[in-house]
Amino acid sequence: MFVALEGVDTSGKSTQIALLKEAYPNALFTKEPGGTSLGQALRQKVLHEHLSPATQFLLFLADRALHLEEVLKPNAHKLIFSDRSLISGLAYAPYPLEQALELHRAHGLLDMLPGCVFLLKLQPKALKERLHAKTHDFIESRGLEFLERTQERCEQACQLLGVYTYILDASQPPKNLQQEILDRLRATPGF
Fold first, then answer.
1. Would you say 8 is a known binding-site residue?
2. Average pLDDT of the chain to the nearest whole number
């Protein structure tokens, strides 16, 4: 099964991935962007250089194509956990969701959808507090309103794709959130 952890920056995806590695040591862990060597280079470029939103989207699209071919499809028989997926690709896109989805479809990037998505959602107050507590990359520097809108688009993208989605309160303590994820994983059909 392919499981994606989604949410805006500071929602705790990386923390939960680290905890899932302890619970599922034999699973494959990956991320988008950055699950391939090219993806790692693209990630650094996008997060640390000023690029237009359209350029960022197209670089992420290229990364997703390579990630699908090199990581996801060859390991489809395994349990895969991914820090982000095409859900984020749609949510962060500088286009309407349907248009971003069509660009993915046109390039064959809908061949392997997550079987289950955990969307870690923050209330505006918690998101604001977490953003103020860290330095920002170029995407985070777009501000609170951009991230709130992106968070809503993540939810809309899950609905648009019809993927099995759990929306979780990301402001709870990490161990509590981990337990909720583990409990819901065990209850997920096909897991």
1. yes
2. 90
What are the domain boundaries of the chain? 2-187
Nearest Cα neighbor of 132 from 149, 147, 145, 144 is 144
Answer yes or no: are the C-beta atoms of 178 and 16 closer than 8 Å: yes
Q: What is the pLDDT of residues 1-24, one digit of tens each?
A: 999 999 998 899 999 999 999 999
Please list, in sequence order, all residues whose beta carbon lies within 8 angstroms of the beta carbon of residue 182, skipping any fewer than 6 positions away: 23
Give the sign of the dihedral formed by CA 66, CA 70, CA 71, CA 74.
positive
pLDDT at 137 over 60: no
9 is in an annotated binding site: yes
For residue 10, say whether it is annotated as part of any ligand binding site: yes
Tokens 């929306």 — which residue? 167
The verdict on pTM exceeding 0.85 is yes
Q: Any binding-site annotation on 83?
A: no
- Is residue 102 pLDDT above 90, yes or no? yes
The two beta strands, 80-83 and 2-6, are parallel
State which fold the 2-187 domain adopts.
Rossmann fold (3.40.50)
Q: Is 169 annotated as a binding residue?
A: no
Confidence of residue 42 (pLDDT cuts 50, 70, 90): confident
